[in-house]
Design brief:
Blueprint lengths: L5 H7 L24 H16 L12 E6 L5 H12 L3 E6 L11 H8 L5 E5 L3 H10 L4 E3 L7 H15 L6 E5 L4 H13 L2 E5 L8 H14 L3 E4 L2 H5 L4 E4 L11 H8 L6 H4 L7 E4 L11 H4 L6 H19 L3 H4 L1
Parallel strand pairs: 1-2, 1-3, 3-4, 5-6, 5-8, 6-7, 8-9
Helix pairs in contact: 2-6, 2-13, 3-13, 4-5, 6-7, 6-13, 7-8
The structure holds phosphoric acid mono(formamide)ester and norvaline.
Phosphoric acid mono(formamide)ester (CP) binds next to helix 3.
Length: 334
């Protein structure tokens, strides 16, 4: 059964937290659903300000230390966390865990008890989502999900920052995701729901997003007034959309299924014909890396409606806002 998300709890029992004065000091970010609408809106507002006025935040995290343990490959997430931390005055330490998963050499609890003595924040990219939630449970410093098999919250926050830049308030916005109901899809659904945007997911049978995440997103959407729609028909999903988002059909960790998946996902490709089904002002989005001419054609990825490199840039600005808030410097700077 889906657990009650933070936003549902917030609206059921309004607390001082539900004010524009948002504080996330000391908190973890394992899932988008850890945030209330107010907290997410506050983070996005800070992200826009950080992007506009970077020099105002130049030393906000002076001497703070961040460690990043990554079990999977990364270009964007690694470099945007490192550049974000470095340009806020702190330092980023990278630990390559691609050869030995976290918890293999010593327990997660022991890693947490060591690392919290040296650093102020822990960033994890893992296979098992539980590695992140367990680390969050053991560590006294904030833990951030930089992608797990279940979610990719930092990606989704930057993506909705990108949409806000283009479209302003996203209440009633028609966001469409086509393809695998994967980690990125999960975080996008939750983020859309929190911001009151409608979210349609068009995915093949057996590749829909997980039922408990859908239930969580729908519980939030009931409060914010949006709709979460799941369908199998990619044409119906893309028709009239304000944004079309796709991701690889085979995520990291599922490579052994690549041959089986390729033909199943073919009808879900975003190309010039399917992009033309969207609203004339619609944008094309992808978290990257893309498998060119598989889930999206070059013509769309490199075309005038594509905002994929704005998304990539905004990873850095959004993560600056996240780091500032989790380390208690968000309010001071706003
Ligand atoms: N979008 C994203 O997370 O990219 P990386 O896997 O390169 O970090
Ligand atoms: N769904 C993809 C996203 C990569 C950024 C994966 O998990 O491999």
């Amino acid at each position: 059964m889906a657990t009650k998300s933070a936003v549902v709890q917030e609206l059921e029992s309004p607390s001082p937290e539900a004010t524009p004065d948002v504080s996330l000091a000391g908190r973890d970010l394992c899932s988008v659903a850890d945030l209330t609408t107010t907290e997410l809106a506050g983070m996005l507002a800070l992200a826009h300000d950080v992007k506009t006025n970077p020099s105002a935040y130049r030393w906000a995290l002076d001497a703070k230390q961040m460690v990043m343990f990554f079990e999977k490959a990364s270009l964007r997430t690694r470099l945007t966390f490192q550049t974000a931390m470095n340009t806020l005055g702190g330092s980023a330490l990278f630990v390559d865990q691609t050869q030995s998963p976290l918890g293999e050499r010593e327990s997660l609890a022991d890693i947490a008890r060591n690392v919290e003595r040296w650093v102020q924040i822990i960033v994890l990219r893992t296979y098992a989502h539980e590695t992140i939630t367990e680390m969050a449970q053991y560590a006294s410093v904030p833990v951030v999900n930089a992608l797990s098999d279940l979610e990719h919250p930092c990606q989704a926050i930057a993506d909705f920052m990108t949409l806000e830049e283009r479209f302003g308030n996203l209440r009633g916005f028609n966001f469409t995701y086509v393809g695998d109901g994967n980690n990125v899809c999960h975080s996008l659904m939750l983020t859309a729901a929190l911001l009151g945007a409608h979210c349609t997911v068009g995915s093949p049978k057996n590749y829909a997003p997980k039922a408990d995440i859908v239930a969580q997103a729908r519980a939030i959407a009931n409060v914010t007034g949006s709709n979460i729609t799941l369908i199998n028909d990619p044409i119906a999903a893309m028709t009239g959309a304000d944004a079309i988002y796709t991701d690889v059909c085979t995520s990291m960790g599922f490579e052994h299924e690549a041959m089986k998946r390729a033909p199943i996902f073919k009808p879900y490709q975003v190309n010039e014909t399917t992009m033309a089904l969207a609203a004339p002002s619609a944008v094309f989005m992808h978290c990257l890396p893309a498998h060119r001419n598989a889930e999206v054609t070059d013509a769309v990825l490199d075309g005038p409606q594509s905002v994929v490199f704005d998304q990539a840039e905004n990873r850095m600005h959004a993560q600056k806002a996240l780091l500032l808030m989790l380390l208690g410097k968000g309010q001071k700077c706003l």
